[in-house]
Q: What sequence folds into this?
């Protein structure tokens, strides 16, 4: 019985689908490297890696509770634990609260400014699941939520938020818009039936163009940041390889098939990792 319950909790936080939390991790760690001018030390790497995993898991709990009445009408989500009734709303919210508190305990080992930013991060995490009811492009709200690790990385290292943070945040927001639009394209037919608002619906036949433009803006801004910090050829190679991956995603989504769009979404963490690896390599040989 306990083993089955534990398995349900793991399913709730998407334990077997790590792509989701990796999408948050790579830009957060990239910002940490920019903030520190290279290796930031084990303490901050562990805090931000575990914190990212924990907050994404807490976000899954909140999201599934908020969307339980919608998810039962979508093929891909109908069997999620909360939607199917395998886990109660109270249980899911309780687990989410515990995970968020553990993440907050990690933040407390940094500094006061980072702790203050963590409250804003929690607020946007709570708001996002409901944005899909009112905002035509809720992926923009998700982009903000998924970018809070960037200013927190800088405050943890520098105790300040320089102008560079705004640029990195905007760039990351466009990356989130790109991959979450691919995700929304998978469920577009179901979302139209139940009245859910998504970028895939809002962009209509311009969806593929919007995705590719968003990739270009993301790579241009983060590429510029690396150039401005003198990261050199290995960083350029990382950006070039990430650009090639984005071009491959165009081939996957251009026909708007469920399979192609979902595959493009799932592989995005490799694109993010490639940019991060370029940053690490650039600082290592600078």
A:
């Amino acid at each position: 019985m306990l083993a089955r319950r534990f398995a349900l909790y793991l399913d709730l936080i998407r334990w077997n689908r790590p792509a989701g939390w990796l999408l948050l991790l790579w830009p957060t760690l990239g910002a940490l490297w920019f903030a520190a001018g290279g290796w930031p030390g084990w303490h901050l790497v562990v805090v931000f890696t575990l914190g990212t995993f924990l907050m994404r898991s807490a976000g899954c709990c909140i999201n599934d509770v908020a969307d339980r009445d919608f998810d039962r009408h979508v093929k891909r989500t109908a069997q999620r634990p909360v939607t199917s009734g395998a886990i109660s709303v109270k249980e899911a919210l309780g687990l989410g609260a515990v995970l968020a508190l553990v993440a907050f305990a990690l933040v407390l080992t940094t500094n006061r400014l980072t702790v203050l930013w963590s409250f804003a991060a929690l607020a946007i995490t709570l708001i996002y699941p409901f944005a899909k009811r009112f905002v035509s492009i809720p992926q923009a709200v998700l982009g903000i939520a998924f970018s809070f690790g960037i200013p927190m990385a800088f405050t943890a290292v520098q105790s300040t938020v320089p102008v560079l943070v705004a640029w990195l945040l905007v760039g990351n927001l466009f990356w989130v818009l790109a991959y979450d639009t691919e995700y929304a394209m998978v469920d577009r037919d179901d979302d139209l039936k139940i009245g859910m608002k998504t970028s895939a619906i809002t962009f209509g036949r311009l969806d593929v163009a919007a995705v590719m433009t968003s990739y270009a803006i993301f790579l241009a801004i983060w590429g510029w940041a690396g150039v401005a910090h003198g990261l050199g050829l290995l960083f350029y190679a990382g950006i070039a390889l990430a650009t090639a991956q984005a071009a491959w995603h165009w081939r996957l989504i251009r026909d708007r098939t469920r399979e192609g769009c979902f595959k493009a979404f799932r592989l995005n963490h490799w694109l993010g990792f490639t940019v991060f690896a370029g940053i690490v390599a650039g600082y290592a040989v600078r």
In short: The chain has a mean pLDDT of 91. The radius of gyration is 19 Å. Residues 42-66 form the longest helix (25 residues).
